[in-house]
Amino acid sequence: MSSYLISNVSVVGAAPTDVLIRDGVVAAVGAGLDAPEATVVDGTGLVALPGLVDLHTHLREPGREDAETVESGSRAAALGGYTAVCAMANTSPVADTAGVVEQVWRLGREAGLVDVQPIGAVTVGLAGEHLAELGAMADSAAQVRIFSDDGHCVADPRLMRRALEYVKAFDGIIAQHAEEPRLTEGAQMHEGEVSTRLGLTGWPAVAEEAIIARDVLLTEHVGSRLHVCHVSTAGSVEVLRQAKARGVRVTAEVTPHHLLLTDSRAETYDPVYKVNPPLRTEADVAALRAALVEGVIDIVATDHAPHAVEDKECEWAYARPGMLGLETALSIALDVLGPQWDLIAERMSRTPARIAGLEGHGLDPAPGVPANLTLVDPAARRTIEPAELASRSRNTPYARMTLPGRIVATFLRGEPTVLDGKAVL
Hints:
Layout: E1 3-11, E2 16-22, E3 25-30, E4 39-42, E5 47-50, E6 52-57, H1 70-79, E7 82-87, H2 98-111, E8 115-118, H3 134-139, E9 146-147, H4 157-168, E10 173-176, E11 189-190, H5 193-198, E12 202-203, H6 205-222, E13 226-228, H7 234-245, E14 250-254, H8 256-260, H9 282-294, E15 299-300, H10 309-312, H11 329-337, H12 341-356, E16 373-383, E17 402-412, E18 415-419, E19 422-423
Parallel strand pairs: 1-4, 1-5, 6-7, 7-8, 9-10, 10-13, 11-12, 13-14, 14-15
Antiparallel strand pairs: 1-2, 2-3, 5-16, 16-17, 17-18, 18-19
């Protein structure tokens, strides 16, 4: 295997040092390292982070390869500084059997750009009626540990309880898309002042908060593990804060777009801003940011949701909800949090890797640790051009925005997937 010497780099914001990578692991960390056989990567002015880990990625394959493939999504992830992503189950066919999750897992291995860990569906066909083959997916080669009907809520409380009880046997996790469907029928955006003014049917915050409150109680009763996807309201933060104070085994994520954008974006009627859950108010954004710093919200997850042109460039009411996120997530985190490198590493690498049980990921560069890491130039600023993104889709809400930070290099088990900001493979 190749050897690389990253010189004069700041490891998670510490004083500059050298990092030697050999045989897929970090061989040494220290000033003045000498390795004549190694390829030197100049780390001056760069920050080395543990490779980012995303718990919420839509790769669309199988079924919607016109929007994304495992390979193109993996490339976007590597360019965004990721070394592992968890692929959601709403493919076609749905990833509700061992066969489908193994297919996604093998496609990820073949691409070789990031570790792709499939998430299995909770219910057959995401229909919310019968439990999927949870045990078979857990015992498959993909070793699925997280299950979600994301895009759909597991609305039936009896079914949700059964799912939580089932996965408890192997310490699995149910990741809930918290949306009471009877409160969001026909909803187009956040219910509030802007939706009233625009005449669009509103998606009330309580539709999210009620499901989280219910599921927290079910999780507490069962003693299982719950993960709440894309938290978007201040009220949800309070429900989570109280649950964690009681010791409930619940974790939660927030997306970059819910940390930055508000429902005022809908005033343009540009469907790129249509997402589920919807963009909320400035007060919600402030609460989400504070909760992320505090740790009430555990991680940043992209909810990377690529869509083909015809599914986005149409009337607002007919547009599919969702936004790209993998190639811009770290820049949004820097924009929102500033250069709090230890916090960024915790929320975007260490904790998501720990939640998902991804061995070898989420570890700071240190001797003997698998060399899964990313190098960031915090001084760089870049303007987001949709045509330059690696994703097959172009539905980014950050088009032509200038954002801080640039991914210079990404290493997966000691081999570069990105060098000088460009994909290697």
